[in-house]
Amino acid sequence: MTETRPSSPSPVLSPKDAARLLGISSRTLARLVKRREIAFVRVGGSLRFKPDDLRAFVDQNRTSRHE
Description:
The protein has about 70 residues and is mostly helical. The chain has a domain at about 15-60. It has helices at about 15-20, 25-35, 50-60, and strands at about 40-45, 45-50. The chain has a two-stranded antiparallel ribbon with strand order 1-2. α1 (about 15-20) crosses α2. The mean pLDDT is about 90.
C-alpha cells in the first residue's frame, strides 16, 4: 500500500515580490488590495500573495486585441 504525503503549501510572495511579478509598483498593488481587487492572505500582520491568485488576477483582467 502506498502512503500519500500531504502536498506542501504553495509559496506565498511578499508585496514587493508580487508587484515585481505583475510588473506594477508597490503603490499600485496597495491600491488593488485596498479596493479588494486582488486576493491576498494575511500572515500575522503582513500581506502575502499566492502565485495562483496573481495569475488569476491577470487572466481576469486580460482584454482581447479587438477591444
